[in-house]
Amino acid sequence: MTSYNKTQYDEIADGYDVLDRLPWRETEAHSFRTAIGPMLSPDMNVVEFACGSGFYSQKILEWGCKSITGSDISPAMVDGAKQRLSEAVAEGKARFVVGDATKPRSLAPDGTEGYFDIALGVWLLNYAESKEQLTKMFETAALNLKDNGVFCTVALHPTDNLEERVAAHEKSPLTKVMPRHTYLEKLASGEGWLFKVTLPGDTTFMTFHLTKEIYEEAAHLGGFKGKLEWRPEIWKDEDLKKRYASWMTGADWDVRREHPHMSVLVVHKN
Length: 270
Fold this sequence. Notes:
CATH topology: Rossmann fold
InterPro entries: Methyltransf_25, SAM-dependent_MTases_sf
Oligomer: single chain
CATH superfamily: Vaccinia Virus protein VP39
Shape: globular
Strand order of the largest sheet: 3-2-1-4-5-10-9
Keywords: Methyltransferase, Transferase
Radius of gyration: 18 Å
GO molecular function, one term: methyltransferase activity
Pfam families: Methyltransf_25 (PF13649)
Helix content: 25-40%
CATH architecture: 3-Layer(aba) Sandwich
Number of strands: 10
Protein name: Methyltransferase domain-containing protein
Structural class: alpha/beta
């Protein structure tokens, strides 16, 4: 993982939570819960990589599990997560540590491998700039999961035709909706693109969009031998248009649906 992925989040930690107030977050959370909800049970221990300020760590406890262990490369983000879930931390239901998902290690309380039932990686995989780094992220998840464990992630819309997506994001309305994606350059490896994400208030950060083929190859190389599914984003309800009318016109929403922002990737370890 590139060095700026740590420093950029230390610097924008205070502004990053604006994501929680965007219309996409509501659709994203609904899509993610639809995918992961049926898998959760009160006796499960869950680990989350790239936990940020704890948005999904909090959700997972609300949706039903025994404990959540969160990890992020940014100490500032980890501090924010501890503050957000301070009560759960005090009760022993949540713990947070600084960690780099491209450096496989156990995050279990006792340091053992294969401790967790489910691993989460919401907006984790897009910080890999190569298949090699992506494979390390999958290795980290596999190392922490039980043999029947599942890795659930929110990732960018899967496609092997990134040039078509780049062209679409260079035109209105995708040049103005938030979060705004500005594709900057194709990676020399040909595995994907570097792009900039812009949030309201001009908070920005850099990330990567690798091809669908690279994601799937990395999952297999990283230790996942079971079923792999790309689940589409699910719009919660039509009322979303009314509640966020100030963000986008009806025509803009139609274009947005034609170019999905994200997908939920569900991978079974075995």
